[in-house]
Amino acid sequence: MSRPIRGRVDLDALRHNFSVARRYGAARNTRLFSVVKANAYGHGLVPVATALADLTDGFALLELSEAIALREAGIQNPILLLEGFFRADDLPVLAEYGLTPAVHRLDQLEAIEGAGLPVQLPVFIKLNTGMNRLGFTAATLPAAQAFLAQAKAIGDVAYMTHFADADDPRGVDWQIQRFDALVGGWRGTVSLANSAALLRHPQAVRGWARPGIVLYGSSPFADQSAADLGLKPVMSLESEILTVQELAPGERVGYGGLFEAQAPTRIGVVACGYADGYPRHAPTGTPMLVDGHRSRLLGRVSMDMLCCDLTDLPQAGVGSQVTLWGGDLPADEVASAAGTISYELFCAVAPRVPMSHVGGQADVA
């Protein structure tokens, strides 16, 4: 018999969340790249992309292998490689599978021009407007633009950037000003908005937007919940209670004895630990649900187990269902209690956790 821990992905909720993102872009006829990097944020690349293929305008991800997997699964939508290509010998594969790279260095443009590809390769030129990770700057862009002007192997050109503070008070206007100064009145295709900018900064919603976390039912904002945004949770992580222990006052539980009972305390031992992807650094008090009722984590998370408080849940016992996140327990709330973000919770779910996918067939209004 397998361990009782399991994940579940609600593809109908995913499609609903896409429709929310679509409404934010509709006023400006903005196309959407659904971001499915990191195995669709841990939700399962091919099932997620298949559920969105008839809704989205394109997909965006990082790994060439994942892009190939989508093509081999029958996905025909445009695919943007957000970090571009890493070696020149990848370029024939990009051409074969009809993939579009983001380009952030001059030598990448030179590699495309010298690759002898059978087709012109479209590119998104990445501009560094303040994130200071990837992208051309005011100092390096002119050489790239001069090269593009005479290039024969490069097809359609678009410009993109990435926002550092779309979810913070600093906002995006300072980066939009830098972007506009760099592109100098460019009237072609652009891509600026991530999830936060799409929902909160309409001035950034141009060309192609790139929604990511909102598709998976989490809020990009600390001051606004997913439910407030009209989003539905997509992933649930669930397990069961393996056994029950009774602690007397002064007794401790788990490695390091981080939790000490101050009164008679009833605890449930749950089949979930950091090897399953639950954050080891989650402190006592991190919320969970037991048979739909609120409980809390007690003590340190172990590799394969953790403990929850059953003191006020006398009906709970061996076999009781435990929700680590999902459904009525937002992943954002669990992540906040654990000092992280829902992105990390989703992406950290381990391969040993079986993940089922349900729904995804019906159209979403």
From TrEMBL:
Cofactor section: pyridoxal 5'-phosphate
List, alphabetically, the SMART domains matched: Ala_racemase_C
GO terms, molecular function: alanine racemase activity; pyridoxal phosphate binding
Question: Boundaries of each Alanine racemase C-terminal domain copy?
Answer: 234-358
Identify which residues the record assigns to the active site.
Answer: 37 (proton acceptor), 255 (proton acceptor)
Listed under GO biological process in this entry are: D-alanine biosynthetic process
Q: What is its EC number?
A: 5.1.1.1
Q: Which Pfam families match?
A: Ala_racemase_C, Ala_racemase_N
- Annotated pathway, please? Amino-acid biosynthesis; D-alanine biosynthesis; D-alanine from L-alanine: step 1/1
Q: Has UniProt tagged this entry with the keyword Endoplasmic reticulum?
A: no
- Which major enzyme category is it? isomerase
Keywords assigned by UniProt? Isomerase, Pyridoxal phosphate
Coiled-coil region(s) at which residues?
Answer: none
Q: Which residues carry this modification: N6-(pyridoxal phosphate)lysine?
A: 37
A cellular component annotation (GO) from this entry? cytosol
The reaction(s) this protein catalyses: L-alanine = D-alanine
Q: Which residues bind substrate?
A: 133, 303
> Which sequence ranges are marked TM in the entry?
none
Main function: Catalyzes the interconversion of L-alanine and D-alanine. May also act on other amino acids.
How is this protein named in the record? Alanine racemase
